[in-house]
Amino acid sequence: MTTYAIGDVQGCFEPLQRLLNKIHFDATKDTLWFVGDLINRGPQSLETLRFIYSLKNRVKVVLGNHDIHLMAVAWAGAEKKKADTLDEILNAPDCEGLLSWLASQPLIHHDPTLNMTMVHAGIAPQWTIQEAIQYSKEVETVLQSKKRNHFLRYVYGNEPNQWSPELTEIDRWRYIVNSFTRMRYCYGDGSLNLNFKGELDQAPSDLTSWFLMHERKTKNDTIVFGHWASLNGEVSTPHLYAIDTGCAWGRTLTALCLESLSIESVPMLPEM
Fold this sequence. Notes:
By secondary structure, the protein is of the alpha/beta class. It has helices at 13-22, 45-55, 65-76, 87-90, 95-103, 129-143, 148-154, 169-181; strands spanning 3-6, 31-34, 59-61, 108-111, 116-119, 185-186, 192-193, 208-209, 222-225, 240-242, 252-257, 263-267.
């Protein structure tokens, strides 16, 4: 039995199949962790979502910003973006079932046996793993409640950008979602900057990547994350594994074996 964490697939179904063949994935005994952004931007979002859904008990999934965007478009009337590749899902006869399954997924997955945690973008520097799990559950509860569409309608936005336990309702949920699914950089006081998306060596002097924040409470926790394609999997910080290697942008799709910490990748386009 082997566990593999897979980087942002984003609808790149054919590379995913090649990657699974390369690692000799056995659906009868192996487990796949998907780091979020299962769909959107790639050419086969519907096939990707159906395939991951079909694996059921052999997968662990956390939500990414594109997954939440899909739910907001489908259920809350959010505007599609020019580069979205969501129409096949939205028009599919099994759309509602696929989205309901997606909405049941968490923002964080923690495995105490492997002593590893998976998120899409990161964990707010102020939070411990246990606090992050607790805050994820708040959003999971909302997504399963009558407040779901209200939440999805107002989930977009960059404020508030500073965590406080006193935050309530939409402000609280939006901060939690932004931390787990959109975060890259923080200011010195730990507040989020959700606008700058450049590489580490291009960051303004007042910004620090979330994982290099001096006061980060998860420094000793092993975390697997995606979202940040420009890192290209290259993070020298101990206990951190960045596995979004930009498949949807023409680069590679990556699998990290959680037992051996070995890495396998395939290119977006098959080699001739």
